[in-house]
Amino acid sequence: MNDTKIQKEIISVLEDKIQLIKREAGAIYLVGPIRLPVNLDGETVTFKWYCWLNCDEVTEDYERIIEKLSSENLAEYQQSSVLVYGDFEHGENALIRMHSICHTGDIFGSKRCDCGFQLKQSMKMIKEYGTGALFYLANHEGRGIGLFSKAMAYVLQENGYDTVDANVNLGFVDDSRNYSDAIHVLKALRTKPVTLITNNPKKLQALENAGMLVSGRTPLWGDISEFNEKYLQTKINRSGHLEQEGMPLHD
Ligand SMILES: [Zn+2]
After folding, report:
1. pLDDT tens for residues 196-249?
2. Which residues sit with Cβ closer than 5 angstroms to ligand 1, an ion?
3. The one catalytic residue among 106, 175, 181, 223
4. What is the arithmetic mean of pLDDT over 53-58?
5. Which of 225, 220, 236 is nearest to 163 (CA)?
6. Which residues form a coiled coil (predicted)?
7. How far, in Å, from the CA of 179 to the mean position of ligand 1?
8. 16 is catalytic
């Protein structure tokens, strides 16, 4: 397209799929649903995918927002998204997972943590349950310290520090994750209560404090190995995660 002015037709196609969610300051622009067939263990499962963008400008003139996209260098700032399954808006019960991005675990399949397992497993659980959503939170790497700092923290961990001490020694609080955007999006997609997939009651509490209606919690443990045993034990000992009966972890 030569003209910088975006064609009317493009705008009208996109407008139907954009939702403005106002916040205390600024707004979230939610785009979707987009049909997303996914390979889950060889089976094709179709999710509805939404992605969102935070913006200081609050406008329902989406043309203004669309015009700005190409100059905003968005690839430098990863956006979050959500995979929705079933009748999420109306279904009586829904299972949700607030999944923090983990470059090493989700993408490379690193066994230093259990994130890759949790990601795939929660997608399967949501599909089996029939209704639910998986929020993939892009600004939560390393519990909110970012990928580069996480590499530093791993170096410290290889030198005897546990995952909490490593973060603290780099000047971070142990867990700086914020769920406010995700909850705004959740509320735009569903107003009924949800069951949260998590081992962490603090996360449940944080989400309730932020206004999420929670009807229950479903634990998610698995893929425990010699490589992540210490990490998982630290989550239980220091970060308040609830151990499941029969878990093969040592003290
Ligand atoms: Zn991880």
Report:
1. 999 888 788 888 888 888 998 998 877 778 787 777 777 777 767 766 655 545
2. 102, 105, 113, 115
3. 175
4. 94
5. 236
6. none
7. 18
8. no
CB 126 within 8 A of CB 194: no
Distance in Å, CA 85 to ligand 1 centroid: 24
Residue 102 alpha carbon to ligand 1 centre in Å:
5
Which residues is 83 bridged to in the sheet? 49, 134
**Cα 180 versus chain centre, distance:** 12
Q: Which one is predicted more confidently, 251 or 126?
A: 126
Q: Which of these is catalytic: 162, 165, 174, 177? A: 177
Q: How far does the centroid of ligand 1 lie from the alpha carbon of residue 69, in Å?
A: 30
What's the CA gap between 228 and 109, in Å, rounded? 12
CA of 68 from ligand 1 middle (Å) equals: 33
Which segments of the chain are extended strands (E)?
Answer: 18-22, 27-40, 43-55, 81-85, 95-100, 132-137, 194-197, 214-218
Environment class of 250 (CB within 10 Å of its CB; exposed 0-12, middle 13-18, buried 19+): exposed
pLDDT bucket at 57, cuts 50 / 70 / 90: very high
Assign 2 a pLDDT band (cuts: 50, 70, 90). Answer: very low
Residue 177 appears among annotated catalytic residues: yes
Tell me how far the alpha carbon of residue 113 lies from the centroid of ligand 1, in angstroms. Answer: 5
Query: Does residue 147 sit in helix, strand or coil?
Result: helix
CATH numbers and ranges of domains, the chain: 8-140+177-238 (3.40.50.10990)
Provide the β-strand partners of residue 29: 20, 53
CA angle 7, 12, 17 (to 5 degrees): 130
